[in-house]
Amino acid sequence: MVPAISTRPAVSVVLPSFNRLRFLRPAVESVCAQTFTDWELIIADDGSELETRQYLQSLENRARVTIVWLPHTGRPSIVRNAALRRAAGQYVAFLDSDDLWAPAKLGRQIDTLRARPACRWSYTAFVGVDACGNPLPEEARRRWVPYEGDIFEQVATTCAAIRTPSVLASRELIAQAGGFDEAMSAAEDYDLWLRLALYSEVAIVDEPLVYVRHHDENHTREWESAFVGRDRSLSRRQQLVDSRRRSLLRKERMRNALRLAATHAQRRAQGRMLRALWESFPFCWTYPQWWLGVFKAVLRAYLPRRVLELYRKCRRAA
């Protein structure tokens, strides 16, 4: 009997879209330019306007492209999960509609994972670029540390710099982890990487094969939701880990709460700052660092700006 030839692609590329057509076109082109060609592209559209819809409709005629049409939610976790449900590949790669891949990106990651069967996911180095694709000035100063293997602690503390378009993972691993948490409006990618790190070691491709754009059309969310999402992720993981990691996650919740309160204080939003401190009290009050942070946040929120500026000048002079 002649064995059936599998039509299953090696990689399913998940790409959520919502308008931003001037960036979406080159993002799609960077997938088509991959030297590794055994892929399918699944674009989940979050209710874009007419011009973007017309472009996506023109892609539906391509054999390896699937468009998933959705009503607008504004929630990337829902959009990505809709594409994941259509994925058939052994692996899944993520690309945002304003970012780009270098041509060798998929091939280098597939080769790396096939050579390291203990690792069921991978990420690469990246370069931050502006709207025109030029490297940002701060890239020359950005510190990059390539973590691999068991990196749960590095993911939890955000020491591991993982950008969504750099990740390629086994579809089975993503299913085991449960996909993106649709209750989260921000930090849903951080949350998934934390769960992937619980179940598998990671292999890094220490090459800048991803270009992450920074521009005035970046997906905008209420900034506070990123802190809220991260706290949800850290809190929910505490029940799944041993006592040492549970202690680590609790400490990260405390640090996250302090950053939220400090940001409110810097914005002179005294009421929001006090609410953030009150809500974090039950899981933070045992940490001396939290009490010191409370003191600093209150001073920053209530002292006159001229007093704070004088204090900063004295510190710089010292």
Main sheet properties: 8 strands, mixed
**Helical residues, percent:** 40-55%
Whole-number tally of structural domains: 2
Low-confidence stretches are 1-5
Rg from C-alpha positions?
22 Å
Question: What is the name of the CATH class of the largest domain?
Answer: Alpha Beta
End-to-end CA span: 83 Å
Q: SSE string, helix = H, strand = E?
A: EHEHEHEEHEHEHHEHHHHH
Named CATH architecture of the largest domain? Alpha-Beta Complex
CATH-assigned homologous superfamily of the largest domain: Spore Coat Polysaccharide Biosynthesis Protein SpsA, Chain A
Count up the helices: 12
According to CATH, the fold-level topology of the largest domain is Spore Coat Polysaccharide Biosynthesis Protein SpsA, Chain A
The average pLDDT score comes to: 92
Q: Find the count of extended strands (DSSP E, 2+ residues).
A: 8
Order of strands in the sheet with most strands = 3-2-1-4-7-6-8-5
Question: Which structural class fits the helix and strand makeup?
Answer: alpha/beta
Shape: globular
Notable features of this structure?
Spore Coat Polysaccharide Biosynthesis Protein SpsA, Chain A, alpha/beta, 17% strand, disordered N terminus, 318 residues
Write the layout of secondary structure elements.
Blueprint: E1 11-17, H1 21-32, E2 39-46, H2 50-59, E3 65-70, H3 76-84, E4 91-94, E5 100-101, H4 105-115, E6 119-129, H5 152-156, E7 168-170, H6 171-177, H7 188-199, E8 201-213, H8 224-237, H9 243-266, H10 270-284, H11 288-302, H12 305-317
